[in-house]
Amino acid sequence: MADKQISLPAKLINGGIAGLIGVTCVFP
């Protein structure tokens, strides 16, 4: 599976998106 290959970038992207959503939810 190529899941492990996209693990690093996916984690960064997911973290960024999650962070943006979290900040937006806390400070709309």
Automatic annotation (TrEMBL):
Superkingdom of the source species: Eukaryota
Name of the featured protein: Solute carrier family 25 (mitochondrial carrier, glutamate), member 22
Organism: Mus musculus
Encoding gene (name): Slc25a22
